[in-house]
Every structure is written in C-alpha cells, then in structure tokens.
Amino acid sequence: QQKVQQSPESLSVPEGGMASFNCTSSDRNFQYFWWYRQHSGEGPKALMSIFSDGDKKEGRFTAHLNKASLHVSLHIRDSQPSDSALYFCAASVPNYGGSGNKLIFGTGTLLSVKP
Amino acid sequence: EAAVTQSPRNKVAVTGGKVTLSCNQTNNHNNMYWYRQDTGHGLRLIHYSYGAGSTEKGDIPDGYKASRPSQENFSLILELATPSQTSVYFCASGDARIYEQYFGPGTRLTVL
Q: Do residues A100 and B94 make contact, with C-beta atoms less than 8 angstroms apart?
C-alpha cells in the first residue's frame, strides 16, 4: 500500500525559531512532493511543491528533496504565531489499478509557534 | 483565487440514513476529489473524477458512492450511514498537469 511517513506528529517552536518537518514516500514513482498547510477550521492549502533534487526556497519556506532516499523536508525560518497550523506533505504517485495520478498524504505535523 | 464550496458545513445523521454531501468548484478543473480526514490518518482519498459523468474509486471507497453530473459539481453519497463514517470530509478540485489540489472548507459529519 502506498504510504507517506511524516514526522514529527507535533512540534512547538518559539516565535522567530526554525520549524522542520520530514516525510518519506514508500513509492519510488512519485512525480511531485507537495506541502500543504491547514489552519483550524479550514481546508488544506498548498504551500509549495518540489520535484527536483536539492532545495527550493519560497520566502521563509525551504523544501529539500532527496530522490534517492525518497525523503522530503520543509523548513520554516523566523516562525510566526500565524504559522501555527497542521502541515501535510503529499506525494503525487501513479494511481495503480486506476488511471492518472493521485496524492498520498502524510498524517500531518501540528505546529505551535509560541509568542 | 480558486473557489471550492461545500454544503452542508455540518451534518448530523442517524445510522442507516442516507447522506449526500455536495461540492461545487468554479475553477474549471477537470479533476475533483473527495477525502476524509481523521486524526492519525491524515487525508484519505474516497472517490475522484476526471470530468462530468466519470467517477473512480479511491483508496477507501467502501460505503460511499460519488456522482459528477457536471464540470462544477461533485457529490458524495452515503446510502446507509454508519458511526464509523463520522469524520470531516473535504472536496478538492485539481489541475492535472501539476497535481495541485484546491480544497473546500470541509463538512463535519456526525453519524449517531
């Protein structure tokens, strides 16, 4: 069964600190990794995607992908209280037995940024 | 900005009853998806669609049906609701080229 392992389950950082999350895909045939953020009471919203080895930076957010190890990470520098949310990684993988691709989501990391 | 709306936002149903969750998107995306979100499981795919008239089974389709009568609308149907289907349900529309998905605000379903 296709899975995405995500860690940690929860994380608390001080305002201005660095928050880091990790994910590993069980399916080597992924096309993209996505990072989504979900504030309480809302639907998830896409933060950024990455499909090439190395780093991708968008503002305070940096994603890192290592295709060989099927590992992706997200780092938030200068964390703000408004960053407090549930963060999901998602791997776009072939839909075996069906058609096209689908997203497999990790179980999420709950981030709390303390003022 | 992409817009996906869901109705109802909250629903209480009785065991054995029929429940229909509705989703509408104005993004003109071909792909639409239904997920459920449970603590410890993340988001799990129930059904999806590649266009009007098509539905496909996702990873956990048992106990659910889907209907895509038009490009804009995608419904999730629970013919015989059970307490194990108590969850938060999310609809999403997607760009098939880059696999980004846009989510609605969710429906909280409680089956008593």
A: no
